[in-house]
Amino acid sequence: MPSILIATTNPGKLLEVRALLEHLPVTLLAPGDLQIDLPRVEETGRDYTENATLKATALARASRLWTLADDSGLEVEALGGAPGLHSARAAGPGRSDADRRQKLLAELASHPRPWLARFRCAVVLSSPEGRTDAAAGECSGEIIAVERGLGGFGYDPIFLVTGTAQTMAELSLQDKNRLSHRARAIRAILAVLAIRLGLTVKP
Predict the structure, then answer these.
(1) In 3D, which of 6, 2, 16 has the Cα closest to residue 194?
(2) Could you say which of 49, 121, 147, 201 would form a disulfide bridge with 157 (CB–CB 3.0 to 4.6 Å)?
(3) Strand partners of residue 140
(4) Alpha helix locations (H) across 31-127?
(5) Active-site residues: which are they?
(6) Which CA distances in Å does 61 have to 1, 19, 130, 131?
(7) Model confidence pLDDT, tens digit, residues 60-76
(8) Is 136 helix (H, G, I), strand (E, B) or coil?
(9) Which alpha helices (DSSP H) does the chain contain, by range?
(10) Is the pTM of this model over 0.70?
(11) Order of all β-strands in the sheet with 115-126
């Protein structure tokens, strides 16, 4: 059975990706499952796909495993698409998800509502030799001023998902993996992933 390395140490992201791929006849591994030192990859790309490619190829070469990486961001219309590529670092180094949410709300306070926004995600599959395939997904919504929900991570508690009455943090894992930007990107790459790894996947 082939193995796929999921190139993240974020527990929430690992949970979501494992659930999205659990039906595949593969062994899913996290960086912590490997007994080797993996490189720390600087996200210096010009867009989400470039950042995901940097992570996927570096960890695939180091581990000699097929590797799936993603990069995602929150883009708020009133802020000209910010925080975007800098979503995970928007409040500075070493700051928490709560710090980043508070900073975003402070920046939006002077702007009229609704605060329309979208999550965007790019996923990249890399072979150990560095051959890559990419796919993307997005989820539209709006930012709300009061946090709701205990699930998810990042900006989820203040992101109200279009077409629902719930924030991303209020959705069940099953519903989040039906609607989220990351889920849509991973579903978009499943067919090519099956081909690259020679998998037979039930419809």
Answers:
(1) 2
(2) 147
(3) 118
(4) 48-63, 97-108
(5) 71
(6) 20, 25, 7, 10
(7) 999 999 999 999 999 99
(8) strand
(9) 11-21, 48-63, 97-108, 173-179, 181-197
(10) yes
(11) 27-29, 3-6, 66-76, 115-126, 132-143, 159-161
